[in-house]
Amino acid sequence: MQHHVFISYSRRDQAWVDPLVAELARRGVKYWLDREGIPFSVPWREEVEDAVQSCDLFLVCDSDHWRTSDPCATEAGFAVRYGKVRLEVSVGQDLTRAAQEIDRTWRQAAHDHGTATELLVRAREWDRDGRRGKTLVSRRIRRQFDALPNVAPVEVAFISASRRRSRRKAAVSMALTLVVLVAYLSGRVAPETEREVNKRLAEQAAIYVSVGAALAAIEDDPYKGLELASDRGDNESAAYATIHEEASAVNLPDDAFTLPEPARQFTDPTVSSQVRVIAQDGDVWVRNTNDRTQRSARQMADRPAAAPDGAARRSDVEIRLQAGSSRIQVLREGGLWRTIVLGSAARTARLSPDARWAVVATDTGIALVDIARGTVRDVLRGAPAPVTDLVWTQRSERIWALAGRSVVSWRVTDGTVLLDQPDEWFAEVLPARDTAHLWVASRNGALRLIERDSGTIVRTVRAKGPIHVVAADPSGSIAAVVDTASKLQLVELDTGTAEAVNVPGDCLPGRPVFSPDGHALYVPCRGADVLVVDTRSRRSTGRIDVPEPGVGAVALDRSGNRLFLGTVGGGVYSITPGSGKSPAWLYRVGCAPDIAAIATGAGAGGGPRLLPVGEGTGLSGCTQVAHAQDGTYEWNAFMDSRPDSVLALAAAFDPTGKAFAIGYSDGSVVLHPSDNGMPRRVLPRIAGGVRSMLSLPSAEADGTTGDLYAATRSGLLVRIPWCPSCLSNEAMAREAGQRLRQAESLGLYKPSATTSMPTP
């Protein structure tokens, strides 16, 4: 965001800051502030630095809390570095007067310095994007930049490149005008060529019109969308893939039963082994939750008392709504925490027992709200009538709803939850000594060994200090831990013994990687290059010099013979460890993201696959995956449009390399086939930002190639089965047919004739 007020404040002053922000929004003041509770870490610093650099006014909400806050001091340092106009207001002063002063100062700063800020931001994005032409500016905007004094070298280069592009565009426009004029005057365009061009254009137009009609049908009636998808599995075209992605993304009921009379309300605060409903005539009906083939309920002789709420609830969070309003409020410890805007008016809402989610019945479906982020993550559809009441199951994995005479249910979590620690922040999921177990690292310093299938905790050891990132050696016996103070330690996972490793002052360590034999540790330094540590002596033995400063990620290929490096400027390099050579440049990822992780996988023909992710991942042109063939890397771009976030901190390939997954900071996991990139499968219902992912081969011949494990900042470890063969138009068409048959058995769908579509 350009031309905004950066609000620097202490979270302990939020009760005063929130009304101030509301008043600023009412006045039309653009602002930026951290609402996500990002830790004082490298990703936080990068995000905040960009926001400060892009602002017109740096606002200090001054208090004793602000003056003793390390994050606030960092923010103020960035403001000094970039010469920002600074305004201080005292926490506790009159809000109206403070808002007036901020509004006036911001508008004056935008007038005086707005053009310079815009040039700074545009030049920075152009440089990060590999200095490509699509981010250059028009002649009109460039003339405003020409008048600015004291511009930086990158800004001078940006203005010059914009000027050259304007000249080229003018020349091309003139040339095209001349070509058209000559063709018109000569009249010598071949009729056969014209007819062939028109034919192909008409075919493509028909395809895109039909795709648009199909997407509109999915939005209007999800069951009609499944009909269309089930009939489109005869080829692997991108047009069909688009339809399958949208149709499969709709969350429909997977259980339902009916009552003789319209339902009034549920009898219990949560559902455990039975669903009990009061009908409009006062009768009470019940059905066992595990009796999923039963489509009716049995009447109870007496109206029962409400069952005890067996759920482990958080008492400090609650939600409020006003009937007919499209906004709900989330309160924490009695104070306003979040205001969430829905797509339509809310009827009723229920908070999940673990306080991670809320479901809100609206005119367009049931909104699934991520409480921590304050966003709608999904809309549950397919109810046969307007929803009048909602109830959660005790484990927060499913909801039930009343819709006329129907009682319907949706599963609202993706994957299988193996570990649930709602008061913790999981930093990493790591391989163990055997494939039946794995390690989970929590930010509080705990490293837990758990059973891979059940999630049972076998052993817990503790690192010294809070964990930022961590890596495990191939034998699963040593963990390299980088704490939140950027100190490195090696932890013996059998005993919990920790030993510090000295790190040079210019190295801000990121997530390291061990050599195949575990004797060497490669540590990326965000301010420098790569540090090499001998794990036996616990000493650094050298460095790998990288042509550009700042390495954000390192990874080894499956053989361990190639080390890949990702820089904070989006560069990707490779080197053979121990060769003594300089890293070879491979590619610069589009939009020049700050690469946070690199996933490697097996490729056809033995060449590795590469997937660098970081800031900007998912945007068009900003995300590329590579496959090496005969020593040459072929890079292909793709786009993920559904996640709310464009920050990815984790990625993984399945054990065969035929599919890959990206974990986003909003909690979404997106699965792709490696070769085609489409159709994707989006999993939006994992609470908390994904911090780490681990891919393990399958222990049994169950039709999958293995499992994907995702660890989130909300203290969840989730298992997702890999199925590369499911990521095709043919497979998704079969799945759409299966979902239709299920909906028909539930009484929610009646078959109808399908429509045809031009073959791409």
TrEMBL record:
<dbReference type="InterPro" id="IPR035897">
    <property type="entry name" value="Toll_tir_struct_dom_sf"/>
</dbReference>
<dbReference type="InterPro" id="IPR000157">
    <property type="entry name" value="TIR_dom"/>
</dbReference>
<feature type="domain" description="TIR">
    <location>
        <begin position="1"/>
        <end position="145"/>
    </location>
</feature>
<feature type="region of interest" description="Disordered">
    <location>
        <begin position="291"/>
        <end position="313"/>
    </location>
</feature>
<dbReference type="InterPro" id="IPR011047">
    <property type="entry name" value="Quinoprotein_ADH-like_sf"/>
</dbReference>
<dbReference type="InterPro" id="IPR015943">
    <property type="entry name" value="WD40/YVTN_repeat-like_dom_sf"/>
</dbReference>
<protein>
    <submittedName>
        <fullName>TIR domain-containing protein</fullName>
    </submittedName>
</protein>
<dbReference type="Pfam" id="PF13676">
    <property type="entry name" value="TIR_2"/>
</dbReference>
